[in-house]
Amino acid sequence: MNAKSTLAALKDDDVVTTSTVLGRTGATFPIPAPLAEHGNARIISVVNQKGGVGKTTTTINLGASLAELGRRVLLVDFDPQHSLSVGLNVDTRNLDGSIYNLMMDESTKIEDYLLKTSVPGMDMIPSHEDLAGAEGGLMNVIAREKVLKRVLASVTDYYDVILIDCQPSLGLLTVNALTASHFVIVPLECEYFALRGVALLTDIIKKVQLNTNPDLQLLGILATMFDKKTVHSREVLERILEAFPEKIFDTTIARTVRFPETTVAGEPITTYASSSTGAAAYRRLAREVISIGGCK
């Protein structure tokens, strides 16, 4: 049995190694060498205006996988629904402060709001429901699209990659994230209606490039919640490939019950179910991100 037929025979909860999880082409991405020095962080926004497509899951698990590869990682929960914070077992009801405080008060220091996660090498800045009021609070601020960039500036020399989990909206907060970023990752559920908003999102990215961040690049579109057993998932993946032939990650993220379980557990799939296909897929994605220049 060859590698592709072996993959087709696997079930979601089978124990596998990273090397047995193939992408669309079967390409391999080498394990990167350790870094001689850290810093000069690449900032990546994880964006889609549609909810429930895997933004938070991707931010947490890609971050954890990059940390496993020796990268210093900072996750920024930039969603008032604070799903990333909850997904990493943060009690958002008893926070001393959040990204909202850093956005609204220039006298605050980011170091006072950094939290350690259960993953060595991966820190986070939590969010809170208060962030929903930030868009209104920023309306009269000079250079309001660049506030998050200012907030993150003091830690870019320490981290290797900063991942921003954006809210399902294309408002001022998302524009702030895109203005602060070098790259964008777009998780896209393999479902027909998920395709419809991609054109609007790419228009927003172009506007940000023209107005506030000419260096912004689309790193890639990540197919998520893929179910190889359904014709619909395969057809949607084909349509994504037709529309963005050069901008879709080789790695795809299959649908699995393990991801909802990790939210309850409050940890990444790489530690909760380390030998699962979901963990292997995100480890493969981390190597692919490094390989294409999204991170050192």
Mean pLDDT: 89
Work out the count of structural domains. Answer: 1
List the quaternary state of the chains: single chain
Alpha carbon gyration radius: 18 Å
- The CATH superfamily turns out to be P-loop containing nucleotide triphosphate hydrolases
CATH architecture: 3-Layer(aba) Sandwich
| Unreliable stretches covering 5 or more consecutive residues | 1-19
Overall form: globular
Under CATH, the topology can be stated as Rossmann fold
The CATH class name reads: Alpha Beta
Give the number of helices.
13
Question: What's the β-strand tally?
Answer: 7
Q: By helix and strand content, what is the structural category?
A: alpha/beta
Helix and strand pattern:
HEHEHHEEHHEHEHHEHHHH
How does this model look, in words?
It is a single chain. A hairpin with a 5-residue loop joins β3 (115-116) and β4. The protein is 37% helix and 13% strand. It starts with a helix and ends in a 5-residue tail after the last helix. Residues 1-19 have low confidence and may be disordered. It has one domain: Rossmann fold (3-Layer(aba) Sandwich). The longest helix is centred in the last third of the chain and has 15 residues, at 277-291. It has helices at 3-9, 55-68, 83-87, 99-104, 134-137, 147-152, 172-180, 192-195, 198-211, 231-243, 258-265, 269-272, 277-291, and strands at residues 42-46, 73-78, 115-116, 122-125, 161-166, 183-189, 217-224. It contains 13 helices and seven strands. With 296 residues, it is an alpha/beta fold. The chain has a seven-stranded mixed beta sheet with strand order 3-4-2-5-1-6-7, sandwiched between helices.
